[in-house]
Amino acid sequence: MTTELPEYYFRVRDNGAAVFRIDTANRQRRIEMDQIAVANIRNGEIKPQGDRELSDTDIAHIRAWMEERTALVAQRDMDDIHRAIDYLNLTTQWVQSKASDDQLEEVTDALLLAMHDLRSTLVRKKSARMP
Q1: What is the CA radius of gyration of the chain?
Q2: pTM over cut 0.90
């Protein structure tokens, strides 16, 4: 069973990726990775590496990856928020049923400030969305 390697490889980094073209069509049949660009999903910028000129195909592949990556990051952000809701519920249960006085003394002020900040921000954002 042989699998074809993709034509491009994206080494994920903060806000994007280093983009490599994959080459296996050489005499040694070794995998060669040639960096062709850096993609930034925050500002949509694609910077060719060195003096390289990117083809329309290169740019199309990079843009498609950027769209997929942006959607994946957004999905992960929402998953994180849903997990945070679960953690808040678990924390409430812990406070009510298991926490010692010393444990509560250690975390109460930090939790109250974080919850106050979150609540204030949520209320402000919700009122801004109201017609």
Answers
A1: 24
A2: no
